[in-house]
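Slide 14.
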Amino acid sequence: MTQPAGHDDFADPDGAPAQDVAGMSEPDSTRILETIRGCVGEQNFQHWFLNRAHAAVQNDQLKVFVPNPFILNWLQKRFRTALSQAAQQLLGPSGQCLLEIDQTLLDQRAASSESAAVETNHGHGENNKVSQPVMSSAARVTPRLQAVQSPSPRNSSENQPAQPAVAELTPLAGRRRFRGFDTLVESECNGMAVLASRQVAAHPGQRYNPLYMFGSTGTGKTHLLEAIYSDIRRTRRNANVVYLSSEAFTNYFTAALSARTVPSFRQRFRNVDVLLVDNIEFLDNKRATQEEFLHTIVQIIENGGQVVVTSDRHPRMLTKHREELTTRFMSGLVCRIEAPDEELCVKVVRLLAAGLSATFTEDALQYVARKCRRSVREIQGALNSLDGHFSLTRRRITQAVAREVLGELVQECRRLVRINDVERVICEAFGVTASELRSKTRRQAVACPRAFAMFLARRCTKSAYREIGNYFGGRDHSTVVAAEKRVQEWIDGGEPLKLPVTCSGRTVADVIEQLEERLMALAS
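Slide 15: predicted structure.
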């Protein structure tokens, strides 16, 4: 989310990354710098912009990117007029300056000390950015797949021109920084996934194939993929390793269909030694891409290669995927990554705090660990907020200061789940529509998810029985009471879930637990 320089709200911390001022591709980068310098003054420029912010002209707007909400708010209040003047000087009377949070600045500050398996979005998902595929320098790429970042310095010097369509798929080329196993914090909540990832990295294609890891946002799935990639590239320099998101795979496949280069696409992806794919849930309802991906991983495994996939849900909960694909995922090893436990949170807080400029008291660190238990991202954001506060005030961060600064943040992170959140999660999990949940039908394929929805609405929201009944088709409170009682009996009795087909075999208690986790992720 962007915000005009004249607006008082914080920018979304998941805002789009900016190009670095020092390496900006815009032809007038020097003019941008000098214009901002002239409008804010030399001293302010040196302190607030040169070392803290990046700027770029994008889409006929001047965009200024900063690492955290506190600095953004400070610039907003102090330099609003000056930045608007700079935009007008650069772009004319209608020029506008927008302030954004650049998540890559946060990542760069924490990368050297980050010890937790923090999941990164790398430019896809919520803001419809296309994920950046990363392919090893040993890969034999086709001309349409040449504009791809590699951590190898040799690739960065290659001067082969990239196709424009492919360049659009790699907006962050040259900026990716890969984490390794050495920066992981292990605990009971992620121990199995870490162990499996280490073994896959040490012996690709020999055990746990495919390896499927799932967990809610911010539990470290992407960090584990990066660690596997880094370790294999370090120990097997000639290995053909491909790491990308399922969104990027989809874009390459559709581009190949349009360009009629599917044979080249298949040769590229089916002949790799290791394929690492993040966020496989993006393939929901993409039947053609699912079939192509299925054939791709089958071919890789048959050739002795390794496949690793991550998702936000168990394979059986991928109700909008082909059954052949979900069963293939389950034929290997499925590892669940739990939300950070107390032990991991304390370790992460201490290690991340060590890489920041702020001085923290022990009780302040304990306070952050207690209040930010949903994901490592939440911990990182809280610490960055405190570090920004320290940059402005130069006050040591005590528990009292942390409580004052994070009070509003903690409230926002703990917002209540709403009934429509429950409805959304149920519809996604069971492949039903909202209108079906609210209808009068008693078909088991709808009645069972409806009962789950009523149960979760009572457990996770503050809505009364009558309000829940009215929401789900004008039913009376006794219907909701009966549904709640019935689901609780299924949980207490260890009853297996008999539908949908892709969820059969799992207990109702397991399904409810995972649905609750997804609800909490929505509320974070």
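Speaker note: The chain has four domains: 3-101, 110-151+166-336, 342-413, 419-523.
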